[in-house]
Amino acid sequence: MITISEFTAREIQRLLQADESKIRVILQGADDLPTPSEARSAILEKLGIDGPFFLAVGARDPRKNLATLHRAMEILNRRHSVPLVECGPRDPGAGLPFVRYAGYVGDAELATLYRRATALVIPSRYEGFGLPAAEAMWAGGRVACANATSLPEVVGEAGLLFPWNDAEVLAQQLGRLLDDAGLRERL
Predict the structure, then answer these.
(1) HSE-up of 141 (CA within 13 Å, CB side)?
(2) Chain segment 58-70, per-residue pLDDT in tens
């Protein structure tokens, strides 16, 4: 049996009582994205963003935990005025003043957004792998993600981790990214 992360292998063992010796982990790759463009981003221009921003991509199901990210952005925006660009399906009930909805974007634009964002933020409480984290790092972007499930395995020491259920700590970490050029460079 082949699986995409050590975390997923442990889940297979736990939930299916599978024999550990029959499970092989082959991590996913992200090298099929186009090279990020150095040209201006049509999406960022359309959204009126020319400075720092955070990025969230993907589905809106509860395990993605966007509510914690939204609370953290509310806290952060008391000190910093910084938008959150969301790519993917629209949340009709959000109506948050700091959210800029980009909708679905193509791979070339996504690679550029990964590269230009202050960080891709992944507050998920359950991920089998976390492909957007790998994609963002491949594109030369920074990642802040929950210290849960497979995400620490994907980002290793190259990502900034936070507890998935703590909006205060997430807001502090995002503030660090805005204030600390050395941290941004290291990541």
Answers:
(1) 31
(2) 988 999 999 999 9
Pairwise CA distance, residues 83 & 119, whole Å: 12
Q: How many residues does the chain have?
A: 187
Eight-state DSSP code of residue 36? P
Neighbours of 180 (CB within 10 A): 12
pTM, entire model: 0.93
Which whole-number Å values give the CA distances from 100 to 47, 55, 88, 91, in the listed order? 6, 10, 12, 11
How big, in percent rounded to 5, are the helix, strand and coil portions of the chain? 40, 15, 45
In this structure, what token pair is assigned to residue 174?
């995002």
CB 122 within 8 A of CB 146: yes
